[in-house]
Amino acid sequence: MVEKELIEQKIGEAIGLEIAAQKSVDELVSKGLLKAEHEKKLRPMQEEANTQQNEMNSLVKEIAEDEGFDIENINSVSNETALKASKIMETYLGEEPDTQEALEFLCLAEGAEVTHYEVLASVAKEVKSRKFGTKVRDILKEEQNHLEMCTKLAKQNINKE
Ligand SMILES: [Fe+2]
After folding, report:
1. 21, 37, 56, 95: least surrounded by Cβ within 10 Å?
2. Pick among 3.50.50.60, 3.60.21.10, 1.20.1260.10, 2.130.10.10: CATH of 4-160
3. CA–centroid distance, residue 151 to ligand 1 (Å)
């Protein structure tokens, strides 16, 4: 039995990572760290992250009453997680970041998303709504694709340099 508050926390973290993923693509582009070919591949990923964020938010809203979820707690965790992720990015990139580091940071971020959705999928049995587990598993597959794509970009980039 996983406590409700812990499930709320994990949901909040997953949503916060979605917010951070979108923000980090914008920031890496504005810092000039991503090449045009990367941006072309990463913009659709960013859009998908936006869809995932919206879908998770509306699903949580829909089931909150039935599940006894505290939406405010979920929201505050997601904001806090997004903030933490920004700080991690700053630390990771350091003083003189390059494209390779930018791509590797995205791998780190997508890796965190994969892990969080894996964890959510494993606690989905504690959630009454069947839709929840289905949605989490769908997003998990997309996150695995994101991680695979970012890893591929990082590998291609280092071989060109
Ligand atoms: Fe992602």
Report:
1. 95
2. 1.20.1260.10
3. 12
